[in-house]
């Protein structure tokens, strides 16, 4: 019966979680709409059936009540309402049609009603269990034991993770510092838990039924912690701040607490009236360890360590900035706590545990003092060591991130960034920002343009950037006859804004949906002015940027964005190019998904292919892309089009492939995500009249202005928020790029960066995780960049620059963030 | 009365300690760490005088842009040897800076080192293909005319 309640609750929580994701504009736009995670679509399709199965199983467990036992009417009402809900689910398929709407939030809350209702039925139906207050030393002992065991669970995995990790240089001494620090932090956190439990126990002792009051206070603490965790960890990360975030978090946290109590009640039924009463802690731990069940406790103890390893390994590659890993840590801690409670039945009195708590306090502050002392160490300061160790130990990572401090000034700054991030399209007025005052007459000779923006392609996975790469010979051949921009960056770390910024030729308002984008679509204006025939893949981002045009040739019809495969597209493209022979010049654009980690990871690496030093699934996908791209270039050469073509190979952003434990491209800004390849082939007759600085910092936002310049429409200088031509007349100044500083941004969160010193230094302020970073990025390809300590001056100057840039974008779009800033500041 | 007081103490002491734990969990300052403030080197308009640039470089010895400015300041002041040394040092940090190659090449050419100037001009052209300054330097080195 308890198992049935757990299954039912997990299903309802999953529906609620999916609904909250749908409610988040960016999570909907980036994950759900383009079907990045097929398992989500499968879940949506199966959800009515899953609900039906859960309802049938639940009805079976309610038979004693339905036959006339206590709680008959609530049980009957549950079955009736559940049947109606099942019918509604089958008829309307609400998860399929939910979309990004306020309805999603309502459904999230409504989905949590069934488990709460069942808990009420169970508490009415089953006899109450006699619960007594917990012996105080036992409370403290269980919490402190959890600290030790919880630390051990993850510490023993750390050496293994160090072997598997990419780019973590942690000598044995530094590793020892990390592991020791993790023990201190765990001890500190669980000492605080011990004190919280003792406080609640003290509070409960004021009443008559202190045992049961204590138990419910523990359940309440669990619900409150779950709510806070969901708000601060999850809702902030997926862009659901403010009241909606608090509502969803409180509802889910409450449901978790109530289901926990329900399962505890059901598992505690085994205690007979003749047996001595259970204490509040044992009752609280019952969902995991049972009540007086050695088998249950033993099973949980045996399972917890491998489970913790599997959870982290299974989620790491598609995690959202460690979110799932951190949540798995909380689950594991809860299990360890329950097992510790089952293992420690009796504790003698004495003050040893008080000494342990005081020692935890002293050790924690000693560690902080040591961290401060080594801030300016030439190489590995304690802070950098601990940051690196955090990549190996998710429990340490969780605590360390929670420690991020915010002064009042910093909190105000974060509120400012958050108010300017993921803004509502209705709050902005899109300006018209033409790159030229008027188009010059089209050149008599206009080259075809092929723009390949390979989603998530990293520069150091291409041989022109990294001599260790042996699997991209065709790209190397193309590069030998092209401009290879060595320090190319994206302005945005995610597709949602990176692609619009390419088309606009500059930074855009921080909104997942770009309102009135036609006013900023400089690339489309150019194509229209110069009479280009468009041949496009219309992905889920581009379809929002360009109006429908019957004259446009849409490639890959019938495929969804995640199915865009460069190899199949170029086959169709070659045919279309042949058909277009002698007509208008062509413009081709595609955002192929071959390299995206969600696609590459699913593709099996062919037997015999090995990629030492590279993430094999991605390297193998790139090898395939390389072959297809090479085939297309050969086609252009064979048909005498090559010297009449501009071929651009770039990406919307890079990707983390295990660097310091990071995977994918969430809202974070790291060198491997911001640096991109940029290879531009020009017809020889264009090369003769242009110059370029290929070692100067360049951006994907420079592409559109560059095309303007190459096609004879010299774009105006609109400042550093906009792109500028990469190709200039030979006598033009080539050095300005090296001196300027540039604003970069995350696409999905309030994370911004200042790039300076010709792309060598990147200061990042992360208002989601509450951290500042500084990176140095050398030209060498082997390492995307290394982390440096952030000095106060760097932070002050960097923040001022970022504020100016963000303000400038707001002014451009006539966006007034004051109301949102107030709301964010109150959080 | 005594029982009530005992209960109050039993509740209060862990609550007080807990407050200490929670209050000191996060450090008291923001994400950035304390550091001596350097003399405005990261301002949007960096200093132009050689002395100020030297101070800035002492703070950030890897800033090639500052080094280039410093080399230019030395050249303006007639301290060509210092300028050359500065440019050479800049190229050890970023050998792909075409502008520094050109500046160094001009100094070499002025001194009569045509081969050195040509090498620098060609290096500049490698990273700045089509650049007029680099092409002019190579041509001047070939012809032996100072720029």
* Global structural class of chain B: mainly alpha
The biggest sheet of chain A, with number of strands, parallel, antiparallel or mixed sense and barrel status, is: 7 strands, mixed
Q: What percentage of the residues of chain B does DSSP assign to strands (E)? A: under 5%
| Largest sheet, spatial ordering of strands of chain A | 4-12-9-3-8-6-7
Summarize the structure in words.
The complex is a heterodimer of chains A (827) and B (147). Chain A contains 33 helices and 18 strands. Chain A is α/β, with parallel strands linked by helices and 827 residues long. Chain A folds into three domains: 1-126; 135-221 and 260-403, no CATH class; 449-734, Alkaline Phosphatase, subunit A. In chain A, the strands form five sheets. Chain A has a seven-stranded mixed beta sheet, with helices on one face. In chain A, strands 14-15-16-17-18 form a five-stranded antiparallel beta sheet, covered by helices on one side. In chain A, strands 1-2 form a two-stranded parallel sheet. Chain B has helices at 2-25, 50-59, 64-76, 80-93, 98-111, 114-127, 132-143. In chain B, helix 5 (98-111) runs parallel beside helix 7. Chain B is rod-shaped. Residues 29-39 of chain B have low confidence and may be disordered. Chains A and B meet through helix 11, helix 17, strand 17 and helix 32 of A and helix 1, helix 3 and helix 7 of B.
Write the topology of this structure.
The complex is a heterodimer of chains A (827) and B (147).
Chain A: H1 2-23, H2 25-32, H3 38-61, H4 63-66, H5 72-92, H6 94-97, H7 102-110, H8 113-125, E1 131-132, H9 136-155, H10 158-164, H11 172-204, H12 210-237, H13 242-267, E2 278-279, H14 280-289, H15 294-316, H16 323-343, H17 352-373, H18 382-390, H19 394-402, H20 408-419, E3 448-453, H21 473-480, E4 483-484, E5 487-489, H22 495-504, H23 522-529, E6 533-537, H24 542-545, E7 553-555, H25 566-579, E8 586-590, H26 597-600, H27 616-638, E9 645-650, E10 656-657, E11 663-664, H28 671-674, E12 678-681, H29 684-687, E13 697-699, H30 703-710, H31 736-739, E14 742-745, E15 751-756, E16 761-766, E17 771-776, E18 786-788, H32 792-812, H33 818-825
Parallel strand pairs in A: 1-2, 3-8, 3-9, 5-13, 6-7, 6-8
Antiparallel strand pairs in A: 4-12, 9-12, 10-11, 14-15, 15-16, 16-17, 17-18
Helix pairs in contact in A: 1-3, 1-7, 1-8, 1-13, 3-5, 5-8, 8-13, 9-11, 9-16, 9-17, 11-12, 11-17, 11-18, 11-19, 12-13, 12-14, 13-14, 14-16, 15-16, 16-19, 20-33, 21-27, 25-27
Chain B: H1 2-25, H2 50-59, H3 64-76, H4 80-93, H5 98-111, H6 114-127, H7 132-143
Helix pairs in contact in B: 2-3, 3-4, 4-5, 5-6, 5-7, 6-7
């Amino acid at each position: 019966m308890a198992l049935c309640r757990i299954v039912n609750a997990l299903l309802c929580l999953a529906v609620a979680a999916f609904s909250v994701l749908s409610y988040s504009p960016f999570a909907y736009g980036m994950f759900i709409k383009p079907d990045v995670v097929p398992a989500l679509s499968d879940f949506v399709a199966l959800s009515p059936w899953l609900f039906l199965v859960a309802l049938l199983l639940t009805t079976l467990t309610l038979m004693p009540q339905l036959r006339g036992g206590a709680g008959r009417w609530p049980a009957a009402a549950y079955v009736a309402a559940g049947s109606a809900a099942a019918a509604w689910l089958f008829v309307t398929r609400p998860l399929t049609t939910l979309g990004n709407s306020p309805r999603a939030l309502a459904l999230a809350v409504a989905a949590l009603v069934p488990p709460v209702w069942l808990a009420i039925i169970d508490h009415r139906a089953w006899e109450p269990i006699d619960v007594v207050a917990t012996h105080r030393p036992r409370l403290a002992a269980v919490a402190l034991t959890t600290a030790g065991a919880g630390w051990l669970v993850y510490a023993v995995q750390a050496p293994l993770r160090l072997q598997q990790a990419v780019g973590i240089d942690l000598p044995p001494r530094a590793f020892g510092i990390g592991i020791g620090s993790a023990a201190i932090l765990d001890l500190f956190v669980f000492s605080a838990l011990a004190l919280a439990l003792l406080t609640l126990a003290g509070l409960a002792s004021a009443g008559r039924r202190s045992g049961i009051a204590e138990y419910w206070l523990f359940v309440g603490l669990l619900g409150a912690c779950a709510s806070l965790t969901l708000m601060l960890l999850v809702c902030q990360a997926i862009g659901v701040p403010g009241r909606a975030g608090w509502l969803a978090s409180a509802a889910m946290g409450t449901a978790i607490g109530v289901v926990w109590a329900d399962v505890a009640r059901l598992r505690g039924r085994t205690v007979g009236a003749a047996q001595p009463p259970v204490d509040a802690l044992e009752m609280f731990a019952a969902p995991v360890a049972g009540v007086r069940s050695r088998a249950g406790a033993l099973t949980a103890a045996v399972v917890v360590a491998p489970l913790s390893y599997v959870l982290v390994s299974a989620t790491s590659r598609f995690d959202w900035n460690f979110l799932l890993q951190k949540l798995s840590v909380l689950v594991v801690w809860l299990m360890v706590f329950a097992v510790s409670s089952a293992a420690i039945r009796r504790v003698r009195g004495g003050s040893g545990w008080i000494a342990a708590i005081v020692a935890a306090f002293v050790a924690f502050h000693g560690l902080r003092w040591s961290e401060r002392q080594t801030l300016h160490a030439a190489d590995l300061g304690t802070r950098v060591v601990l940051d690196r160790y955090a990549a190996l130990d998710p429990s340490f990572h969780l605590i360390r991130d929670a420690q991020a401090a915010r002064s009042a000034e910093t909190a105000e700054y974060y509120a400012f960034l958050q108010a300017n991030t993921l803004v509502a399209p209705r709050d902005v007025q899109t300006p018209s920002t033409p790159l030229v005052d008027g188009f010059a007459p089209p050149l008599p000779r206009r080259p075809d343009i092929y723009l390949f923006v390979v989603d998530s392609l990293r520069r150091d996975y291409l041989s022109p950037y990294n001599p260790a790469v042996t699997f991209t010979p065709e790209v190397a051949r193309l590069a030998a006859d092209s401009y290879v921009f060595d320090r190319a960056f994206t302005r945005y770390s995610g597709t949602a804004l990176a692609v619009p910024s390419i088309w606009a030729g500059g930074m855009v308002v921080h909104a997942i949906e770009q309102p009135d984008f036609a006013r900023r679509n400089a690339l489309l204006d150019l194509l229209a002015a110069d009479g280009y025939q468009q041949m496009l893949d219309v992905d889920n981002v581009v379809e929002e940027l360009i109006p429908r045009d019957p004259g446009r040739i849409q490639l890959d019809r019938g495929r969804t964005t995640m199915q865009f495969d460069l190899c199949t597209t170029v086959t169709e493209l070659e045919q279309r190019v042949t058909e277009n022979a002698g007509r208008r010049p062509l413009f081709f654009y595609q955002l192929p998904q071959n390299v995206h980690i969600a696609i590459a990871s699913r593709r099996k690496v062919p037997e015999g292919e090995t990629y030492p030093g590279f993430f094999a699934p991605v390297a193998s996908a790139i090898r395939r892309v390389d072959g297809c791209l090479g085939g297309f270039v050969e086609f252009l050469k064979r048909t005498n089009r090559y010297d009449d073509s501009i071929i651009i190979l770039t990406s919307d952003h890079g990707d983390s492939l295990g660097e310091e434990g990071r995977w994918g491209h969430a809202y974070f800004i790291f060198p491997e995500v911001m640096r991109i390849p940029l290879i531009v082939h020009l017809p020889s007759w264009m090369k003769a009249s242009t110059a370029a600085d290929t070692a100067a910092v360049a951006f994907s936002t420079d592409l559109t202005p560059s095309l303007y310049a190459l096609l004879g429409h010299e774009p105006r200088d609109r400042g550093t928020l906009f792109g500028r031509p990469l190709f200039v007349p030979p006598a033009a100044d080539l050095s300005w790029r090296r001196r300027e500083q540039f604003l970069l941004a995350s696409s999905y969160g309030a994370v911004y960066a200042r790039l300076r010193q010709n792309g060598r230094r990147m200061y990042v302020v992360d208002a989601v995780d509450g951290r500042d970073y500084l990176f140095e990025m050398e030209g060498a390809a082997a390492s995307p960049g290394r982390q440096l300590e952030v000095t106060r001056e760097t932070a002050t100057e960097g923040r001022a620059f970022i504020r100016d840039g963000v303000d400038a974008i707001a002014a451009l779009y006539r966006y007034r963030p004051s109301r949102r800033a107030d709301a964010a500041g109150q959080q | 009365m005594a029982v009530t007081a005992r209960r109050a103490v039993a509740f209060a002491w862990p609550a007080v300690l807990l407050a200490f734990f929670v209050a000191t969990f996060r450090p008291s300052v923001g994400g950035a760490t304390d550091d001596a403030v350097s003399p405005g080197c990261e301002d949007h308009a960096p200093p132009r005088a050689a002395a100020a640039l030297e101070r800035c470089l002492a703070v950030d010895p890897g800033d090639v842009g500052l080094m280039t400015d410093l080399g230019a300041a030395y050249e303006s002041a007639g301290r060509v040897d210092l300028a050359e040394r500065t440019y050479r040092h800049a190229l050890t940090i970023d050998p792909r800076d075409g502008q520094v190659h050109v500046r160094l090449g001009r100094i070499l050419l002025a001194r009569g080192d045509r081969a050195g100037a040509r090498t620098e001009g060609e290096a500049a052209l490698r990273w700045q293909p089509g650049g007029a300054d680099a092409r002019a330097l190579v041509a001047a080195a070939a012809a032996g005319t100072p720029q």
